[in-house]
Amino acid sequence: MINKQSLWFLTLFSLILVLSVYYITMPNELLLTNNSQYSSTDKDKDKNSDSESNATVTIEESELLVAMRVSLDEERLQMMDELKEQLTNSETTVDEKNNAYEQLRYLNQIQGAEEKLEEKIKKNFQLNSFVKIDNNQIKVVVAAKEHDSVLANNIMRSIQEEYQEKMYITVQFEK
Question: What CATH number does residue 154 fall under?
Answer without folding.
Answer: 1.10.287.4300
